[in-house]
TrEMBL record, chains A, B, C, D, E, F:
It comes from the Bacteria. One of its GO terms (molecular function) is peroxiredoxin activity. InterPro entries: AhpD-like (IPR029032), AhpD_core (IPR004675), CMD-like (IPR003779). Residues 42-120 form the Carboxymuconolactone decarboxylase-like domain. This is Carboxymuconolactone decarboxylase family protein. PANTHER family: CARBOXYMUCONOLACTONE DECARBOXYLASE-LIKE DOMAIN-CONTAINING PROTEIN, SI:CH211-175M2.5. It comes from Nostoc sphaeroides CCNUC1. Pfam families: CMD. Gene3D superfamilies: AhpD-like (1.20.1290.10). The lineage of its organism: Bacteria, Bacillati, Cyanobacteriota, Cyanophyceae, Nostocales. SUPFAM superfamilies: AhpD-like (SSF69118).
């Protein structure tokens, strides 16, 4: 188990990231993920910067859909922490049980057909190569 | 390499699935995935039924977003065939280079944070458990 | 691409493994997997010893079923080489198209339900814990 | 944590699936997997239909061997729930400690050689391509 | 949960492995991994032999670096047990919080770029093929 | 297949990244990975920044060891492009066949024991939890 770095005991560079997380999310809560990777400040800074840009920056994909994509990847990898935190995030953005069920169905079906394609060693159609 | 079952040589039960694929997609092209798994007709039938329901049935998630989720899972698993075929499918539904770039950025970031969460053995926050 | 070590140019310790592969399989063909890992003789020796014991030694699981399990894992991991070589091995031991189709269906279904179990964060039933 | 849907509070369509699970297995117990995915009835119906056909339908692969294949995939993916439930299922069908040990040895060896084949970038032998 | 085989109740062949673990590590503690796989003595013997050779034998890669590689793989696969045990092992060999943070950053970055390379279907440069 | 963006046709922001890659590596060659993700400039910028910091910045882990860790992760994920490019990178930094063989042996062994730990559902030792 990793030590979680609380705001009060954090260095200035870590506090700066925590402050930005709070301002970006308009919420004081810092979840354990950030408190854990704060043990290595450069990783905290780089990771927060990436998550902030990718998940909250302007873009063509709707913020709720971004959360769904995140959950689909996390369920595929079996990352318990990421499934729990992003499911909470998606619910806060409006995901209900039906949408979650549809998401799980898509992710599960993709995992199924991925292995059929692998196992049957199926050549990519010419028309999909361009 | 698996033998691909062409329509002309297919059994009646396989042809019925091919006919439904064509009708559902309003397109005569049957891609190699179906021609390969047609070597085992029950798997062809069950898999097409699932893909049809999950990817084309009514639901809260937009058909283009469903393709994005499919691609994110397939890129995570490294399934070359599925990446190629669903990228083509998403482009046909309107995905441009920017949307694809955003999708890849989300999938890549999720794969990155999944491993940080695993490696740091981060406990799930109480508030994410309910 | 790794250099493949042919018998003629192999060191004595590598030849000894190649000889044992030929004797165990009663077949002169050495497939590329062994010729590649022969670049590191201790890995060649240890890996062949493990594969020989696990796949050809006495045991409760039938040799053909062992090949099916191997293929299921390899399809899950997307290892093209291992899928191709063990599918050939299973066919040589009697696997036909129907059995391969059933195997793919089981592996695909397991990959599907694995992600549903992950995504829904399902607690293990008490009765499965003992 | 997902809410588990008990029989008493379930909708009619969910109860119909639960009834079929009980009849097929000749056992009243509904395990948590089904109670969790019952939050999305179409996923419950489709998934049960697939598992029923693939795991209990007629076929060339013995029901116990099907469980072993399922466990090998689940251990490869690290799905704790599926490992626990299918290990219980396999034990009920006759798997003892030795058979489980052999299964783990095969799955572990395949996972090992899969990475050697990947890492050494080994070309597939011509004879394995047909 | 698997029964853990304690030294006192172990068979002679299992005790011989436990004795060798203790002698090799110059430490009396046998961790749960070995006590669990001792349920299948041939797997215990083969696995210990491999781990002993690969992790403690002579070689060009420093023992601490071997532990880091092990952790990177285990974090990629999400194996909680292996992450915990090898993190303890690496700390005993001198890994501090900064080195662990760097390791996690490398593993996370590799997992990120692996999916970009997959998703963008990037052809291998000619110069990397030789 | 993704279009590769050559320097001559690149936008100014993309050229700035290419220039930094060349300056950092003291080598004019831009490999396909960067030319592909240049289709989405923010992903190109963020990814290069991360790779540059993590792989070439100051730190406790030797640059060659960083490449080995990268390869171990890429082999575990089966990312052909990343295996090929980072193997070339490691060889340029001094990796010989023996060191590569040792690396593969460690990665393969970790993949093996990861699945034994998963499959046997081994509880983490108390002493590894602190």
């Amino acid at each position: 188990m990793t030590k979680l770095i609380e705001y009060e005991e954090a260095s200035e560079e870590v506090r700066a990231v925590y402050d930005d997380i709070r301002a970006t999310r308009q919420n004081d809560y810092i979840n354990n993920f950030w408190k854990a990777i704060a043990n290595h400040p450069p990783t905290l800074q780089r990771t927060w910067q990436a998550v902030k840009e990718v998940m909250t920056g302007p873009g063509e994909i709707d913020p709720l859909m971004r959360e769904l994509i995140y959950i689909a990847v996390s369920a595929t990898n079996g990352c318990e922490y990421c499934i729990a935190s992003h499911t909470a995030g998606a619910r806060a953005k409006g995901m209900d049980d039906t949408m979650f069920g549809e998401l799980m169905a898509i992710a599960a079906t993709a995992n199924m057909t991925n292995r059929l394609a692998n196992g049957y060693q199926i050549p990519v159609d010419e028309r999909f190569k361009t």
